[in-house]
Design goal:
It is a single chain. By secondary structure, the chain is of the alpha/beta class. About 45% of the residues lie in helices and about 15% in strands. The strands form two sheets. A five-stranded parallel beta sheet has the order 2-3-1-4-5, sandwiched between helices. The chain has a four-stranded parallel beta sheet with strand order 7-8-6-9. Helix 1 packs across helix 7 and helix 9 packs across helix 11.
Length: about 300
């Protein structure tokens, strides 16, 4: 039996992960009180028809309903129970989901939901402050579970489809997990540098397909443009040096506690050269042990703007 315990901060994506695991064939039990985990595991093991894969959702509400007077004691008890079952030969994996305070507050604002630990007044003016206090308390209470987790996943910059890809990669495909996520973003300098970028690379020194009539209307997603850009010895050498630097940086960033890198590649309009190089980087790292995604921020902006100009 493979058992996954899904925990983490409220608003970080626990419900989404439970739905993904359910679609992948896991028997899912959400919001199980912490004091009942041990009993449930024993029942699941002794069942006449034991399940091959089970997922248990545990959040701050389950800890509050644990029966312990102190939440910290409840957390300690849960970790102890899981450790004991592991010692007895159970395969139990814990995934802990987190996100930045800014992202969590934004998600609560968008959904208009109340944080489970928010007990203050409900005035709109103090919304961010109330939620921020609740998030800080929750981080402190769940820190021991995070430290004991097998997987810690920061969902701050992940869309639902990215989260599904990562969960499927770990729990369905059986690929090795590394608590590090790479995001490659192409952009156009005329539209500004992405504000969340950790590393920014300017590829405006490469041959520009914009000045080739048959390539001008295409993008870096088209084979003709990609081949044109990468036919340059300079582009090949740049890719070689850039991947070498990324390989050097990742373990050092991980030592400092970072769980991901946003690498932005820019050209003038974000349509040709930056898209080509971003695709090339993604192709190099998508089969690595790291989570990986790509995003072309400005690939269609010139097209939209010019179409709008024609209508004026």
């Amino acid at each position: 039996m493979r058992l996954v315990m899904v925990s983490g901060l409220s608003g970080a994506g626990k419900s989404s992960v439970m739905k993904i695991l359910e679609d992948d064939g896991y028997y899912c039990v959400d919001n199980l009180p912490g004091s009942l985990i041990s009993t449930f595991l024993q029942l699941a093991n002794d069942s006449v028809e034991p399940r091959d894969r089970i997922a248990i959702g545990l959040d701050i509400r389950g800890i509050e309903f644990s029966g312990s007077e102190k939440k910290t004691e409840a957390v300690t008890s849960i970790i102890h129970d899981v450790s004991e079952f592991k010692k007895n030969g159970y395969t139990i994996e814990t995934i802990f989901l987190e996100a930045s305070d800014e992202v969590l507050i934004k998600r609560y604002k968008e959904t208009r939901r109340i944080h489970p630990l928010s007990r203050m007044d409900t005035s709109v003016e103090r919304f961010g402050e109330r939620v921020g206090d609740a998030i800080a308390e929750e981080r402190m209470l769940l820190q021991p579970i995070k430290e004991a987790a097998d997987v810690v996943l920061d969902t701050s910059s992940l869309l639902v489809r990215d989260l599904k890809q990562e969960i499927d990669r770990i729990y369905t495909s059986g690929m090795p997990y590394s608590n590090f996520y790479l995001t490659f973003v192409s952009f156009g300098y005329k539209y500004g540098i992405p504000t969340d970028a950790d590393l920014v690379f300017d590829v405006r020194f490469l041959p520009n397909p914009y000045y080739v009539e048959e390539l001008k209307a295409l993008t870096g997603d088209d084979k003709e443009v990609s081949e044109y850009v990468m036919s340059s010895d300079t582009a090949v050498e740049f890719m070689k040096r850039l991947t070498s630097m990324i390989d050097f940086l990742i373990p050092n960033y991980r030592i400092e506690g970072k769980t991901g890198l946003v690498i932005a590649v820019g050209c003038t309009g974000g349509k040709h050269r930056s898209v080509t190089l971003t695709n090339a980087l993604y192709d190099v790292y998508r089969e690595s042990r790291y989570g990986c995604k790509k995003y072309h921020r400005d690939i269609d902006k010139d097209r939209v703007r010019k179409a709008g100009d024609l209508q004026r």
